[in-house]
Write a structure and sequence with these properties.
The complex is a heterodimer. Chain A is α/β, with parallel strands linked by helices. Chain A has 20 helices and 22 strands. A seven-stranded mixed sheet of chain A has the order 3-2-4-5-7-6-12, with helices on both faces. A five-stranded parallel sheet of chain A has the order 14-15-16-18-17, sandwiched between helices. Chain A has a four-stranded mixed sheet with strand order 9-11-10-13, with helices on both faces. Chain B has one domain: Pyruvate-ferredoxin oxidoreductase, PFOR, domain III (Pyruvate-ferredoxin Oxidoreductase, domain 3), CATH 3.40.920.10. In chain B, strands 2-3-1-4-5-6 form a six-stranded mixed sheet. In chain B, β2 and β3 form a beta hairpin. The chains are: A alpha/beta, B alpha/beta. The structure holds thiamine diphosphate (TPP) and iron/sulfur cluster (SF4) (2 copies). The site of one iron/sulfur cluster has 10 residues of chain A, from loops.
């Protein structure tokens, strides 16, 4: 049977068809939906882990137990999981172990544009790269076979245009999953120096065997399409389709295993064409590998920033590109914004009012950076807010701690924020940390987390109690505030930042998607009472609009969720609820 | 079959993703190859959403090359202006008359680009203006406006209306099948 599947659905389908038993992941665009789709298969145990390192370690355990296992993450997630990755390369696996990593060329939804292929070389593990949804599914099977045959974890690289594109896939039933005896092998699994020295040699030998690529499972990898003798192009992943469409006359070697590269195959291909080119997205990874191996590659004037496309490839080879029908326009933008009724808004309003420096983190609340709030002053990576506020504190002997806060979401706190807070407690920090607990992982599409009270499958589970947790960690000043009460937020912020001690302020109202029951009848502006003071428009709620002619605020009642925040800031009793 | 490239543009929450999924399933049911690529904003609503749908005997890139869209369908009145690169001289435009004000327009700092919207329509081979919101509210459910738009798109594509109806019935929530089909039919006859 054929279906149109997204790359992410196809990865999940691959896990199902090829007998994966355990999937543990942490959400991150564009990889999130893989694990969400996996969760629909009863036969696979799946979970949201607290972070990518925990997820990878969990599936290493599952592999050791002799079952097939998979973890999925976005590119920056692999930074967090890099520590176990480097050494699971040495231990090798028992049950097949696949790590799907999704890059985001052009940064549609990411904080950087790193190229995950470098991790394959760094960890000395193979990396496969599918070019469409069918291959996304198939390559999970190839990766699992390869993993078991060569005793190695296998990376499968996706990107936004694979994960979030759909194409036709042949659906098959689930294979009987292979089951191996759990391994108890100290020399293989206990990486103390004496054992690791032996395993390092195993790793090097494995790489050599892999790059021979004589047979890598049920698919013959790295196919060649021979056309003209003039131009030969080496490409991989979605770029293959761009190249094929832009350069139908060229001979193509499609690298399906992008690391290690089968140099023999490349050399044979290179001998048959007059000019050899590499067309790849982001870094010159394949190109540099080939050059290091002494293979002559023709230069291309290609940017290592952003995405490729059919047109970009046409331009690289001096072909004509069509004219757009009309010129780009200056248009009013539709920037992302926190939803009407978002439980983060009130706290940012308070932070902005007090002009505090906010060391931010990553989540929906990062949107607090946008005007009119403009209340996030730094964002680096998940978990960075608390240590950065600690650094501000220590560098200025407490001076900046009186004028700054760290702002972090619940999922981000569980991810890596908790380690930073422990450090601040231990090292007698005096900063103020705000945990915006909205009971869900909002940014990536509302996944449950340890503060939600249910698992990925919706089964009820332990829910972390923030005040108790903080108390146990040794935080002395713990305040819980209602973020829909800006006056209270301002008061608590003033009090806690003034203290020369560490403080944690927790907001406790859910995201409108975590608990739909918070949505209530909309509010409206009574024009007779509205003085035109504009204070409510400074909340940045998308439902609050401004009537230029009448110089009065009004509310789009189809957007308003009835959160009452604007009522709290209006000094003229002009905002009322529809009954 | 002849290759068909469709650029589907809307604002988060308008149902463009579901609509483009339906086009894909219809193409597959109609024995064509199909690919779609999508950039949707983050979890919040209100951002620009764009789907590239390509149909043919064998589709390569999931993204439409510059100037090669055969049909641009804009679920909001001005949104098609954001993607000038995909339309060419032979492109048809299907555009909803319905406007969703961007925050800066709603906030009074900028004005809605009505003139630009009108002027730019000339660049297209043909323009179909659909009052999808009025039709949808007439049917008693403003949420099916996207389905009215899809009905018009269906009328321009070489697939049987019956295929569309059966795919739609599978894709929308069971309770809303009737009103969605009514909206589709209205758009189909526009
Ligand atoms: C290492 C890493 N993993 C995953 C992501 C993707 N990501 C961005 S924000 C976010 C979670 C935000 O959730 P939360 O902290 O609860 O804030 P909310 O969005 O709910 O406001 C995730 C998973 C990332 N940027 N970096
Ligand atoms: S999805 Fe939730 S957390 Fe994100 S902006 Fe909307 S209400 Fe806020
Ligand atoms: S009550 Fe006010 S602040 Fe809350 S969603 Fe409605 S308009 Fe926005």
């Amino acid at each position: 049977m054929k279906e149109v599947l997204s790359g992410n659905e196809a990865f999940a389908r691959g896990a199902y068809e090829y007998g994966v038993k355990v999937v543990s992941s942490y959400p991150g665009t564009p990889s999130t939906e893989i694990t969400e789709h996996v969760a629909q298969y009863e036969q696979i145990y799946s979970e949201w882990a607290t972070n990518e390192k925990v997820a990878l370690e969990t599936v290493i355990g599952a592999s050791l137990a002799g079952r097939r296992a998979m973890t999925c993450m976005k590119h920056v997630g692999l930074n967090v999981a890099a520590d176990p990755l480097m050494t699971v390369s040495y231990t090798g696996v028992n049950g097949g172990l696949v790590i799907v990593v999704a890059d985001d060329p052009n940064m549609f939804s990411s904080q950087n544009e790193q190229d995950s292929r470098h991790y394959a070389r760094l960890a000395k593990v193979p990396m496969l790269e599918p070019a469409d949804s069918q291959e996304a599914k198939d390559f999970i099977g190839v990766a699992l076979d390869m993993s078991e045959k060569y005793c190695t974890p296998v990376l499968v690289r996706s990107c936004t245009r694979i994960s979030h594109s759909k194409s036709v896939v042949k659906i098959k039933p689930r294979n009987t999953p292979p089951v191996f005896e759990p391994e108890n092998d100290i020399k293989k699994w206990v990486m103390v120096p004496a054992n690791a020295r032996v395993r390092h040699k195993v790793v090097e030998n494995r790489l050599e065997r892999l790059s021979d690529c004589a047979d890598t499972g049920r698919l013959t990898l790295n196919p060649v399409e021979f056309r003209s003798e003039e131009i030969g192009i080496i490409c991989a992943g979605v770029t293959y389709h761009y190249v094929k469409e832009a350069m139908p006359e060229a001979s193509i070697l499609k690298l399906e295993m992008v690391y290690p590269i089968c140099f023999e195959k490349v050399k044979r291909f290179a001998e048959k064409v007059q000019k050899l080119y590499v067309v790849e997205e982001l870094d010159r990874f394949i190109e540099n590998e080939l050059k290091a191996a002494g293979i002559e590659v023709q230069p291309l004037n290609r940017s290592v920033c952003g995405e490729l496309s059919v047109d970009e490839v046409r331009k690289l080879f001096g072909k004509e590109v069509k004219e757009p029908a009309f010129d780009p326009k200056q248009l009013p933008a539709r920037p992302p914004n926190m939803c009407p009724g978002c439980s983060h808004r009130g706290m940012f309003y308070a932070i902005a009012k007090l002009k505090l420096f906010a060391a931010g983190d990553i989540g929906c609340y990062t949107l607090g950076l946008l005007p009119p709030l403009s209340a996030i002053n730094s964002t680096v990576c998940m978990g960075a807010s608390i240590p950065m506020a600690h650094g501000l504190d220590k560098a200025t002997e407490g001076a900046m701690a009186r004028k700054s806060v760290a702002v972090i979401g619940d999922s981000t706190f569980f991810h890596t924020g908790i380690n930073g807070l422990l450090n601040s407690v231990y090292n007698a920090g005096t900063s103020t940390v705000i945990i915006l607990d909205n009971r869900i992982t909002g940014m990536t599409g509302h996944q449950p987390n340890p503060g939600t009270g249910c698992t990925i499958k919706g089964t009820p589970t332990q829910r972390i109690n923030f005040p108790k947790l903080l108390e146990a960690m040794g935080v002395k000043n713990i305040r819980t505030v209602n973020p829909f009460d800006p006056d209270e937020c301002i008061k608590v912020l003033k009090e806690e930042t003034a203290k020369e001690e560490l403080s944690v302020i927790v907001t406790d109202k859910p995201c409108i998607f975590a608990d739909r029951s918070v949505i209530r009848p909309p509010f409206f502006v009574d024009v007779n009472n509205c003085s035109g003071c504009t204070i409510c428009t400074r909340l940045g709620c998308p439902a609050i609009l401004w009537n230029k002619e009448e110089k009065r605020a009004f509310i789009d009642e189809t957007l308003c969720t009835g959160c009452e925040l604007c009522v709290k800031v209006c000094r003229f009793d002009a905002i009322h609820q529809r009954k | 079959m002849k290759d068909i490239n469709i650029l589907m543009i809307g604002v988060g929450g308008q149902g463009t993703v579901l609509s483009s999924d339906i086009v894909c399933d219809v193409a597959l049911a109609g024995d064509a190859d199909v690919k779609k690529s999508e950039i949707h904003g983050m979890a919040q609503r209100g951002g620009s959403v764009v789907s590239h749908v390509r149909i043919g005997d064998k589709v390569l890139s999931p993204v439409i090359p510059v100037g090669e869209a055969n049909i641009v369908i804009s679920f909001e009145n001005m949104e098609f202006l954001r993607y000038p690169e995909y339309a060419g001289k032979e492109t048809s435009l299907v555009v909803n008359k319905y406007r969703i004000y961007p925050p800066s327009v709603a906030g009074g700092q900028e004005t809605y680009p009505s003139e630009q919207t009108e002027e730019t329509k000339i660049a297209f081979k043909e323009v179909f203006e659909i009052d999808a919101m009025t039709t949808a509210t007439g049917l008693g459910n403003s949420k099916v406006a996207g389905m009215v738009m899809l009905g018009k798109l269906a009328a321009l594509l070489p697939f049987d209306a019956e295929i569309w109806r059966s795919v739609i019935s599978k894709k929308v929530p069971p309770k809303t099948i009737d009103v969605n089909l009514a909206a589709f039919n209205a758009g189909y006859q526009f």
